[in-house]
Amino acid sequence: MPPTCTGWTPKDGTLVAIASQFRFVGNVDDLLSRFGRISTLQGLRYWSVTDNGWQTLITNATALDGPDMARPRADFTVAEMRGGADLYFTETDNRSTRPIIYRMHVTTTSANVMVAIENVTPVQIFMLTVFGPGDLQSVHFLTRTAPGLWSYYGLARTGVAIGTFIGVKEESYVNRALALYSHFAGTPIDPIRP
Predict the structure, then answer these.
(1) How far apart are CA 157 and CA 117, in angstroms?
(2) Which of 12, 42, 93, 123 can pair with 61 through a Cys bridge, CB separation 3.0 to 4.6 Å?
(3) What is the model's pTM?
């Protein structure tokens, strides 16, 4: 059963949870700008359990003006991130063969940030749909706990995928989630290695 704070419905799949604290002297808007700079995700690296080495996780990333791949735009501003509207972006990762459109929704207070993300288009490898729309979800909770100190709690879940049947290791999902945490928190991480 997913935590109620996520708003997720129950489903089978894999759930990854990351909890941490990190030092950051900025404010909520500074953290929001990290999530809004979609283009900086391009080139993000992670430790691939499958390949037993560092790999580029995201090969392309672009903000979109709505859920339309044909409408690329500049990265999101802090005002847009605070606006309460759904924001859309596209990513191509190192395993999928087509770009994936994601929806991002942000909720903020003076000391808290919650960013929820889910895919709105299927994830395909060649002609095979590996994950359907809504099968890749993540939520990131960031709270200022003291001056210069923030707590992070992140959940990422995948629906049951074809990868389950061909032996994708859970560590692969963990390392992908750790890479994204590292990017948003600006903190280096130690990946899980076999």
Answers:
(1) 11
(2) 42
(3) 0.92
Task: Tell me how far apart the alpha carbons of residues 102 and 117 are, in angstroms, rounded to a whole number.
Answer: 7
User: How far is 186 from 22, CA to CA, in rounded Å?
Assistant: 8
Separation of alpha carbons 60 and 173, rounded Å: 19
Closest CA to 95 of 51, 53, 52: 51
| Sequence letter at residue 126 | F
> Which domains are delineated in the chain?
12-185 (3.30.530.20)
**Span 124-160, pLDDT tens digits:** 887 888 889 999 999 999 999 999 999 999 999 988 7
Tens of pLDDT, residue by residue over 91-125, are: 999 888 899 999 999 999 888 999 999 999 998 88
How many other CB atoms are found less than 10 A from the CB of residue 35?
A: 22
pLDDT digits 0-9 by tens, 73-91:
999 999 999 999 999 999 9
Can you tell me the distance from the alpha carbon of 152 to that of 138, in angstroms, rounded to the nearest whole number? 13
Give me the DSSP letters along 126-189. Answer: TTEEEE-TTSEEEEEEEEEEETTEEEEEEEEEEE--HHHHHT--HHHHHHHHHHHHHHHHT---
Query: According to the 3-state scheme, what is the secondary structure of 85-96?
Result: CCEEEEEEECCC
